[in-house]
Design a protein that fits this description.
Helix content: over 70%
Number of helices: 19
Number of strands: 0
CATH class: Mainly Alpha
Distance between the termini: 52 Å
CATH superfamily: Amino acid/polyamine transporter I
Structural class: mainly alpha
Shape: globular
Order of helices and strands: HHHHHHHHHHHHHHHHHHH
CATH topology: Amino acid/polyamine transporter I
Radius of gyration: 21 Å
Largest sheet: none
CATH architecture: Up-down Bundle
Length: about 425
Amino acid sequence: MGGFESLVFHGRMVAGIFTASNCEQREPIDKMKTLGKMGPGLLVTAAFIGPGTITTASAAGANYGFALLWALVFSVFATVVLQEMAARLGLVTRLSLAEAMRGTGTPTLASKFSVVLVIAAIGFGNAAYEVGNIAGAALAASSVSGISVARWSLMIGVCSGALLATGRYKVLEGVLVVLVLIMSALFVVTAIVLTPDMIEIFKGMFVPTLPSGSVLTVIGLVGTTVVPYNLFLHANAVREKWAAEENLEDSIRESRWDTGLSVGLGGLITLAVMSTAATAFFRTGLEFNAQSMGTQLEPLLGDQAKLIFATGLFAGGITSAITAPLAAAYAVCGAMGWSQDLHSSRFRMVWGTVLASGTILAAAGSKPLAAILFAQVANGFLLPFVAIFLLVIMNNRSLLKDHCNGIWANLLGGLVVLVAIGLGAIKLFRIFGVV
């Protein structure tokens, strides 16, 4: 049995992990058809590989070496588990996560609380993310132009608003995504060239430790990978990729491959960023700051490293600065029952508020790295609430019928929630001097 066929065979055996129904015999997966269906998972990966991930992963590697790799492993695992649930919800019910939270027949109080949760998690969470997106792009532009981060933040905010208002952001989107992918590939190649200590890597991946002062960085790593708004984004995206007329079982199976492979790729890129930072800063003692981040790529790119790093970071910041407000608008409007038309006044009001708040806070902040890291930590604290509501919905048999969660999916989802809550609790206990 070949490698791909072996994966398929085992995939059939574990498919019941996620659903309550038994797996039935199916024809072997068409490899090319499955790969051709990839898309929504890549969108999720592209959404979390931005300035926040690059900065947070760099800070983790620079300050703690390979010690926090276990947090990345957990984050990738958690992302696959939760994103699979969100995608299955969208495919089975043809509802967005926000719509499901608002109108699944739950008690009125719970339904109202879910709307508040969406607005808090997506409105506030994306506003915090937007600060990091704009600050990251402004930081990159400032490092090569000499113009202040504050001025670049204002210019980026205005340009992003103009692109969103006119609908012309798609013209730049492809170019920017390609630049981000190129920089991601450079990190992976650099990590290979550096030949890091594999024993240290495996130890960091599978032996959890919390070095002094690292809790917020761990929460940031979780928050930058398991992004709450990606759960809303994914449930919408799968409905466009797989039509209601297609075979549901095939759609779910293809979506799982898409999610697993795409998120795994994102995890590999983040691992490469942490590895290069650990080698460039932690091992050498070189100071890690906004100006020195590009040093990570010097073993591969030499004197051009900082310029290419800045270009990729700028592209990632602009892309995320445009997509985050859009994702917030779709989620909030869906939760409120408002029109999700791009030209509706309420839709524009939501993305405009997120963009404006991110721009103002990025321009006002004097420490862009701190703003970026804060955004990831804020989303890390919000994650448990969104995950709990997702688990509740995924156990609604009247809504999902045979595709509701099985016992293993609930156990894995519950583990994700408990770890996320535990990390937040540890930080709060330390703030109040309890531990």
